[in-house]
Amino acid sequence: MSTSVSVAYDKARADGRAALVGYLPAGFPTVEGGIDALTTMVDAGCDIIEIGLPYSDPVMDGPTIQAAAQQALDGGIRTTDVLRTVEAVAATGVPTLIMTYWNPVERYGVDRFAQDLYDAGGAGLITPDLTPDFAPEWITAADARDLDKVFLVAPSSTDERIAMTTAACRGFVYATAVMGVTGARDATSDLAGPLVARTKAAIEVSAPGLPVGVGLGVSNGAQAAEVASYADGVIVGSAFVRALLDHPGDADAGRRALTALTEDLARGVRA
């Protein structure tokens, strides 16, 4: 039985803080190594986990995540391995989503994917290259199983697009405040605050209470604290991937780096 991400957001709100959302692609550095890394992140303080489905044409990912996904693909990762990773992480009780480009889901079969995700205990999908107006098949399959549907808004989104997107989301809406590809950055974007304000204004009308998670290249606790001052969730991906890439072949060192980074970020969202 899956746990909706709204449960984690509600708990974080009750604690007077933002939720920490951590991302790694499945199969990185290996399938079992990835499961170990993700559960380490859970133990160290991640409230929600995003598991990436490695894809051969990751047009929206920066070089760090691309390198990790390519390593997983070179290792022979399959969609069944991604679902097995979801099952292992969801068993911790932390809401677990898959983040995926749409093509692999379509090839697998939308209804079949939704059922297998549900059976694995997954909370839902984040679909960066799928917008609600082109998602009727996914929306139908997700609604039949109460799966979360997380769509993206960006600084370039019109108010009309933001309203349409928030109305279609369940779980949270993903505000991507970086124009261009993903990746850790030295400073947070000045586009994030205004985007969250516009998104929350739309939510008041179309989806009261829907949380807003922000992804913009956060890589340390100080940046997490800054984003947590205006967002409901702080989404971190590239920094977690980098922590493992910096320790190739040394699982213990990678685990220690992940733990230290997660604890720093967890302090940040509570600051």
Question: Could you characterize what this model shows?
Answer:
The protein has 271 residues and is α/β, with parallel strands linked by helices. The chain starts with a helix and ends with a helix. It is globular. The model has no long low-confidence stretch (mean pLDDT 93). It has a 9-stranded parallel sheet with strand order 5-4-3-2-1-9-8-7-6. The protein has a domain of 183 residues: Alpha-Beta Barrel (TIM Barrel), CATH 3.20.20. It is built from 12 helices and 9 strands. Its EC number is 4.2.1.20. The alpha subunit is responsible for the aldol cleavage of indoleglycerol phosphate to indole and glyceraldehyde 3-phosphate. It comes from Nocardioides humilatus.
Give the overall shape, derived from the CA principal axes.
globular
Main β-sheet description: 9 strands, parallel
State the helix count. Answer: 12
Q: Report the structural category.
A: alpha/beta
Helix content: 40-55%
Q: What sequence of helices (H) and strands (E) makes up the elements?
A: HEHEHHEHHEHEEHEHEHEHH
Roughly how many Å is the radius of gyration? Answer: 17 Å
CATH class of the domain at 5-154 and 234-266: Alpha Beta
Termini gap = 33 Å
Could you give me the name of the CATH homologous superfamily of the domain at 5-154 and 234-266?
Aldolase class I
Uncertain residue segments? none
Mean pLDDT: 93
The CATH topology of the domain at 5-154 and 234-266 corresponds to: TIM Barrel
Oligomeric state: single chain
CATH architecture of the domain at 5-154 and 234-266: Alpha-Beta Barrel
Pathway: Amino-acid biosynthesis; L-tryptophan biosynthesis; L-tryptophan from chorismate: step 5/5
Subunit structure: Tetramer of two alpha and two beta chains.
Active site: 50 (proton acceptor), 61 (proton acceptor)
EC number: 4.2.1.20
